Amino acid sequence: xxxxxxxxxxxxxxxxxxxxxxxxxxxxxxxxxxxxxxxxxxxxxxxxxxxxxxxxxxxxxxxxxxxxxxxxxxxxxxxxxxxxxxxxxxxxxxxxxxxxxxxxxxxxxxx
Length: 111
Prior knowledge:
By secondary structure, this protein is α+β, with helices and mostly antiparallel strands. 34% of the residues lie in helices and 26% in strands. It is built from three helices and six strands.
């Protein structure tokens, strides 16, 4: 598990990678999000569950967890097929950007 934090106390994003089952990875990510939220003094925290090509984003606001549908990300073909990557698979970048900008570490002026 990797964490990106604004400071040592402000957790913004948790990335959870598992090779086993998606269900077990989601459980571990949800528990980590709850822990991060408890240590984040409120707000929203975001996590990702990935099995490599398949990704899901999970958001926790202290009351409920919301997860995206699973989406496919194909990193090995990015360089050769940039147009397809930016059209179909940039959702990971969009989700990370949303999580970080909502967490306050990306300024609104940045495009």
